[in-house]
Amino acid sequence: MDFAQLDLGQIVVLLLIAVVVGWLAGVITRGGGFGLVGDILIAIVGAFVGRYLFDLLDIEIGGGYLDLFVTATAGAVVVLLIVRLIRRI
Q1: Distance between CA 44 and CA 51 in Å, rounded?
Q2: Cβ proximity of 3 and 54 under 8 Å
Q3: Which regions of 1-89 does DSSP assign to beta strands (E)?
Q4: How far, in Å, are 53, 54, 61, 65 from residue 84 at the CA level?
């Protein structure tokens, strides 16, 4: 996905995916969401972490929005688990 050439519709879809991913990661980790902005930020960070981990483990889902959704969700879950571990310390 070439982020430099996104139109407004694609940006809206990515933001909606980010909201769902952030919320879903909160549900998976049994902690709930972090509000609209928090969910988006968790999803964005999760997308980078997920992509890094999937590349490291040589996991390939495919392409497009489904790949982004799965990768970002997995990464966001990892991010939330790490944040919760740090909070306990």
Answers
A1: 11
A2: no
A3: none
A4: 19, 22, 27, 28
Instruction: Write out pLDDT tens, residues 51-78.
Output: 999 999 999 888 888 888 999 999 999 9
| Spatial CB neighbours of 47, under 8 Å, sequence gap ≥ 6 | 18, 21, 68, 71, 72, 75, 76
Question: What are the backbone angles phi and psi of residue 82, rounded to the nearest 5°?
Answer: -65, -45
Each residue of 3-36: b (16+ CB within 10 Å) or e? eeeeeeeeeeebeebbbebbbbbbeebeeeebee
Would you list the domain boundaries of the chain? 10-88
Please name the residue that has the structure tokens 């970002």. 72
